[in-house]
Specification:
The chain is of the alpha/beta class. It is 45% helix and 16% strand.
Length: 442
């Protein structure tokens, strides 16, 4: 030290110290950013194919995108039993979590009217928040999540029924309901002792959201419509549709406990070789194609459009369609983050492909026609044209769930052979009319 002052540092030392200072600042910044815990968005969904596909998306997001977007995602998978009741009760209860809930498009009008799902329209139309191709959806997908011009969900899957059949036994699948009856009879041991299957066919029989949707396809292919001036569930097409079902049940072409059949029962009957045909949700295909899950039939199952009715113009079909969809809890504290994840999961090329390759069915034309996806899941070659040509949505009424439940109750009684089909439809139609009248529709 000279004259009480420290020695002057060289120019090189000053530059060196400045560089180290910058490095320390950068390290501190990184530690601050990566050290502090990120917010967590919760995704509540059904266990099963949807849950498995969402789990793969969440794993990818948390590993590759969480730091970029500033939040992580936590998945909660719930039992399929009474799942939608739990979802709706959760939304009605008004809690802040979960942030995102998987639901079903039949509730979209109810959610909109009750304001228990967040209106996504403005964010969906914002190119910064939704930087994906809005023209890539299959046509019906966004219609199912829109009510009075406003969007209340984003679709993860647009599901429909397909005709599953044993392609080792049936080279050409039946194209009409009459043909389906004949083929099912041929593969029922009661009528053909040499049949390799005990029963010809299985379909939905237990009271559930799927039972009316199965029956609607027969009803609409016979020319039925929901209503004329009043509900039309007791019309001539409705009677033809229900009589077809009763004939198949009474003649024993289905397992005797068909009135208890839902998704898992139909799946099991196909997996064990008990039946030759089934009208089943297309989501069952990955399980049936998997050698470990379905060792007896994994390479023997084909799919086709559901049967229809011959008309002078050709075969008229009807493919019941509904969306599995993601909604945002309107009381969530992470609504914008929830939307960013939902948009990526449903519409981005990466997110939607992950969902498809893990067993989901994203309603994106680019994904459903992707060669890699088609090689693994060739059912999309049938599903995409089926929905484009014959797909239809259920009525978009806020009170539709209650209306559907009335019909559901009577159909289940007919399937169980507990009630005359004509009497059941007349009672159901009258109760639906009285219910809708009480709600101000008439």
């Amino acid at each position: 030290m000279i004259g009480g002052f420290p020695p002057q540092k060289s120019k090189e030392e000053v530059v060196f110290m400045k560089k180290w200072f910058i490095v320390l600042v950068l390290v501190a910044s990184v530690l601050f950013i990566y050290g502090k815990s990120l917010p967590v968005v919760t995704l509540f969904c059904r266990a099963g194919p949807e849950g498995a596909a969402h789990r793969a998306q969440v794993e990818y997001w948390n590993s590759h995108l969480a730091q970029k977007y500033g939040f992580k995602v936590k998945i909660i998978e719930a039992s399929r039993a009474d799942y939608y009741t739990y979802v709706n009760n959760t939304l009605l209860a008004g809690g802040k979590t979960p942030d995102i809930l998987e639901s079903y498009s039949g509730f979209i009008a109810l959610y909109a009217k009750s304001k228990i799902a967040y209106d996504l329209t403005d964010w969906y139309m914002d190119d910064k928040l939704f930087p994906y191709d809005r023209g890539d959806w299959i046509d019906i997908a966004m219609k199912l999540v829109t009510y009075k011009g406003r969007i209340y969900a984003l679709p993860t899957d647009t599901n429909t029924y397909l005709l599953f059949y044993r392609k080792d036994l049936i080279p050409n699948p039946p194209k009409t309901w009459d043909e389906l009856y004949e083929v099912a009879k041929k593969f029922t041991k009661k009528y053909n002792k040499n049949s390799p299957t005990m029963y010809g066919i299985a379909f939905y029989g237990r009271k559930s959201e799927s039972l009316p949707m199965f029956w609607y396809q027969i009803f609409r292919s016979y020319g039925g419509t929901w209503w004329y001036d009043k509900p039309a569930f007791d019309s001539e097409p409705a009677m033809k549709a229900i009589n077809w079902v009763v004939k198949v049940i009474k003649e024993g072409l289905v397992p005797p406990d068909i009135s208890t059949y839902e998704y898992m029962e139909i799946l099991g009957a196909l997996q064990t070789g008990q039946i030759a045909l089934a009208v089943q949700w297309d989501a069952a295909y990955p399980t049936l194609r998997d050698k470990k899950s379905s060792p007896l039939v994994w390479n023997k199952i084909g799919v086709a459009m559901v049967p229809g009715v011959k008309t002078p113009e050709g075969i008229r079909r009807a493919h019941s369609a509904h969306d599995q969809m993601l909604v945002i809890n309107p009381r969530s504290e992470h609504k914008k983050e929830a939307f960013i994840f939902m948009a990526w999961a449903t519409a981005s090329p990466v997110g939607a492909k992950i969902y498809a390759m893990n067993g989901g069915s994203p309603p994106r034309k680019s994904i459903l026609s992707n060669p890699e996806v088609l090689e693994k899941f060739p059912r999309f070659k049938v599903k995409l044209p089926a929905l484009n040509m014959w797909g239809y949505a259920e009525p978009q009424l806020p009170d539709y769930p209650e209306m559907k439940d009335i019909l559901n109750t009577y159909l289940a009684k007919v399937w169980a052979l507990e009630m005359d089909p004509e009497q059941a439809l007349k009672r159901a139609n009258q109760e639906i009319y009285e219910f809708l009248k009480s709600k101000g529709y008439y």
